[in-house]
């Protein structure tokens, strides 16, 4: 109120217009737990893609001994020679402990890291939480393909676009469409970014579902209400690796 009054005084605006408290941005529903999910994306040298996947398949047990792997995928469309994986942590202190333990693990360093790093061209990570209305779910069967759709929303937070985003996602999570594995929002990485991880029986089924959505008035209306808050979006179609818990 003091700030508003001072500005108004300088502008010679009547005091009665200035006593209303300033509007504050809200982040919407707060996290009810500490559990978070780290999204990691690695870009692999094209000539080393097969070798990297083979090495990871053989040595991933050295990494999963320290924390929980949710899924590990090879990206087929939306980024060649790249892998995407999700790790679960109960707290930031747990993650720090895991990273410290790995740095002191001679097997992890000599058998995996020293061989894998030269195969990579870049690494990227984001810290995400499940949105309050979403729960991590397994697909109805093994096999199939996964799609990660990432949305960069306009600034303002879930208080502004949260309900519209939820309606757009849940409109697609219905019989005859894909299966929502989880919806996430960023804590670190690009802010106001949200993700929907989907499962489909096949890439062709995903194409059929997308065509169907374009003619479904219920889905079209929900998407139209959400897209006004959207700056950009991107999609990756991914195949689970043999060692991925989510298959």
UniProtKB/TrEMBL annotation:
<comment type="similarity">
    <text>Belongs to the NipSnap family.</text>
</comment>
<dbReference type="GO" id="GO:0005739">
    <property type="term" value="C:mitochondrion"/>
</dbReference>
<feature type="domain" description="NIPSNAP">
    <location>
        <begin position="146"/>
        <end position="245"/>
    </location>
</feature>
<feature type="signal peptide">
    <location>
        <begin position="1"/>
        <end position="18"/>
    </location>
</feature>
<dbReference type="InterPro" id="IPR011008">
    <property type="entry name" value="Dimeric_a/b-barrel"/>
</dbReference>
<dbReference type="GO" id="GO:0000423">
    <property type="term" value="P:mitophagy"/>
</dbReference>
<dbReference type="InterPro" id="IPR051557">
    <property type="entry name" value="NipSnap_domain"/>
</dbReference>
<keyword id="KW-0732">Signal</keyword>
<dbReference type="InterPro" id="IPR012577">
    <property type="entry name" value="NIPSNAP"/>
</dbReference>
<protein>
    <submittedName>
        <fullName>Nipsnap homolog 3A (C. elegans)</fullName>
    </submittedName>
</protein>
<dbReference type="Pfam" id="PF07978">
    <property type="entry name" value="NIPSNAP"/>
</dbReference>
<feature type="domain" description="NIPSNAP">
    <location>
        <begin position="37"/>
        <end position="134"/>
    </location>
</feature>
């Amino acid at each position: 109120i003091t700030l508003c009054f001072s500005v108004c005084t300088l502008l010679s605006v009547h005091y009665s217009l200035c006593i209303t408290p300033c509007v504050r941005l809200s982040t919407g529903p707060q996290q009810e737990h500490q559990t978070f999910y780290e999204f990691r994306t690695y870009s692999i040298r094209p000539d080393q893609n097969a070798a990297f996947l083979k090495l990871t398949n053989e040595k991933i047990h050295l990494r999963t001994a320290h924390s929980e792997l949710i899924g590990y995928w090879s990206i087929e469309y939306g980024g060649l020679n790249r892998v995407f994986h999700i790790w679960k942590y109960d707290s930031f202190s747990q993650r720090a402990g895991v990273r410290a333990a790995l740095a002191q693990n001679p097997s992890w360093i000599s058998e995996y890291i020293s061989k894998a790093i030269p195969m990579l061209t870049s690494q990227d990570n984001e810290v995400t939480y499940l949105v309050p209305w979403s729960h991590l779910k397994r697909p109805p069967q093994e096999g199939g393909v996964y799609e990660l759709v990432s949305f960069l929303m306009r600034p303002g937070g879930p208080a502004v676009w949260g309900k519209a985003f939820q309606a757009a996602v849940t409109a697609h999570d219905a019989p005859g469409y894909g299966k929502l594995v989880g919806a996430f929002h960023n804590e670190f990485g690009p802010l106001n970014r949200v993700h929907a991880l989907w499962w489909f029986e096949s890439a062709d089924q995903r194409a059929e579902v997308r065509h169907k959505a374009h003619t479904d008035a219920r889905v079209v209306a929900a998407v139209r209400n959400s897209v006004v808050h959207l700056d950009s979006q991107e999609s990756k179609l991914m195949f689970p690796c043999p060692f991925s818990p989510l298959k």
